[in-house]
């Protein structure tokens, strides 16, 4: 895949910044009292193989531009993939036409100028990978080969795929903000099928990073996908019971996502959250600290500014178990009478402070209970906190895994689950913008046979 040189990237950044400036000028010319715009340009390569044969080779190249104009407190938005001057004028005209028919909303406005990002720090997010198609195919094949050779019970494959992408993002508004930066993201994944008698199971593994040198090896990804698959063979069902439940680290990220959904500004001002009116109150045990690190170098979710152009900053969402803040953008903050927290577009690099126990130590801490390794369905009620998900994993006794389990449902309420968090492990071993160890919950209902 052709990769932009440093000079090419700098030239492209300058050109896209000029497009933003032109769009903001055009919005002012057409009478808008305020405007904001963003533009992105990306390219990538993806290859997929299955059973040693190439299935797809895909080159991608995309451009996208969006603009929002404000006439007082009425706003309109439009977007286009055409970056020509004529298309820019047309997009602004379309946004203005929409604003003319939009009801005023007192909270439809830009953030204050003093909140805008005045500097764009280098977060080390751009590491282009000059990998060719043949080499990409070779790595994907070697990943799948490692999985298929791991155990004779691996009988089929869903394939392996490798991807590399780079992009440039520029944003600006009429409050004096304009900024942008390039990013890269590379990944490799594999999924295989195992069989033992009549029992069949599927599992996968993946690696992703800003820099290709930070990826796990193709062999380790394939072998881990196979090991996870084989471990699931021979799954049993359980009788209905109550027991401690441990969410393996990569599964526990879903609990953090439920927390974010409950403390998002839109959920709070709509009064559709089970954590409504809990700001400043204890929602977790005292040992829990959950924080955001948007300026983490090479972080998969790092960003110097949010979707409103507001400077991002590190902060605790939960400290000593107490909810410290909601997650707000300019609009939701206005609706709640609070300042933005710089989270337009979401939370970036969410972290929970991990404990001292590794995975084996967490199992010993649990003693007897359920280790959850996969969740299914969408049975989470953000309003009440009621939680009911299909699950599979392993039954544990005396701190040791006894056998795999499947076709069960775990149920509880997120308020009780958060309050009943016994420990967080230090076993975070998966890639992603959200980092956590395994969670041990004191008690949940397990519905089986």
TrEMBL record:
Pfam families in alphabetical order: PmbA_TldD_1st, PmbA_TldD_2nd, PmbA_TldD_3rd
GO biological process, one term: proteolysis
InterPro entries: Metalloprtase-TldD/E_C (IPR045569), Metalloprtase-TldD/E_cen_dom (IPR045570), Metalloprtase-TldD/E_N (IPR002510), PmbA (IPR047657), TldD/PmbA_N (IPR035068), TldD/PmbA_sf (IPR036059)
Residues in Metalloprotease TldD/E C-terminal domain copies: 241-448
Positions of the Metalloprotease TldD/E N-terminal domain: 35-99
Similarity comment: family membership: Belongs to the peptidase U62 family.
Protein name as it appears in the record: Peptidase U62 modulator of DNA gyrase
Provenance organism: Thiorhodococcus drewsii AZ1
């Amino acid at each position: 895949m052709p990769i932009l040189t440093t000079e090419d990237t700098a030239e492209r950044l300058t050109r896209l910044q000029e497009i933003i400036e032109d769009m903001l000028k055009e919005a002012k010319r057409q009478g808008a009292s305020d405007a904001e715009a963003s533009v992105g340009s990306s390219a990538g390569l993806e290859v997929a193989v299955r059973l040693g044969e190439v299935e797809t080779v895909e080159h991608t190249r995309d451009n996208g531009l969006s603009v929002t104009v404000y006439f007082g407190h009425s706003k309109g938005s439009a977007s286009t993939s055409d970056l020509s001057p004529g298309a820019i004028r047309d997009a602004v005209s379309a946004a203005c036409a929409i604003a003319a028919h939009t009801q005023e909303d007192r909270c439809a406005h830009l953030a204050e100028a003093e909140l805008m990002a005045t500097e764009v720090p280098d977060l080390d997010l751009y590491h282009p990978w000059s990998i060719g198609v043949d080499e990409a195919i070779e790595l994907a094949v070697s990943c799948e080969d490692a999985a298929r050779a791991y155990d004779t019970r691996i009988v089929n494959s869903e394939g392996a795929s490798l991807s590399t992408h780079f992009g440039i993002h520029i944003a600006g508004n009429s409050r004096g903000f304009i900024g942008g930066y390039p990013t890269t993201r590379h990944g490799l994944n594999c999924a295989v099928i195992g069989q033992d008698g009549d029992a069949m199971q599927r599992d996968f593994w993946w690696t992703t990073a800003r820099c290709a040198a930070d990826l796990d090896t193709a062999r380790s990804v394939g072998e881990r996908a196979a090991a996870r698959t084989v471990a699931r063979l021979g799954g049993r069902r359980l009788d209905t019971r109550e027991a401690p439940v441990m969410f393996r680290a990569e599964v526990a990220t879903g609990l953090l996502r439920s927390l974010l959904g409950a403390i998002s500004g839109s959920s709070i001002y709509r009064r559709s959250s089970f954590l409504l009116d809990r700001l400043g109150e204890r929602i977790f045990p005292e040992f829990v600290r959950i924080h955001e690190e948007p300026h983490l170098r090479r972080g998969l979710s790092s960003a110097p500014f949010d979707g409103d152009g507001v400077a991002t900053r590190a902060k605790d969402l939960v400290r000593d178990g107490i909810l410290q803040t909601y997650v707000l953008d300019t609009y939701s903050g206005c609706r709640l009478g609070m300042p933005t927290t710089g989270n337009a577009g979401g939370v970036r690099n969410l972290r929970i402070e991990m404990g001292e126990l590794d995975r084996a130590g967490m199992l010993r801490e649990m003693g007897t209970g359920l280790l959850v390794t996969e969740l299914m369905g969408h049975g989470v009620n953000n309003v009440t906190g009621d939680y009911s998900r299909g699950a599979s994993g392993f039954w544990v006794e005396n701190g040791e895994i006894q056998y795999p389990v499947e076709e069960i449902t775990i149920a509880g309420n997120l308020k009780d689950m958060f309050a009943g968090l016994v420990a967080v492990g230090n076993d975070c071993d998966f890639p992603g913008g959200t980092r956590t160890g395994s969670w041990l919950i004191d008690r949940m209902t397990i519905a089986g046979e």
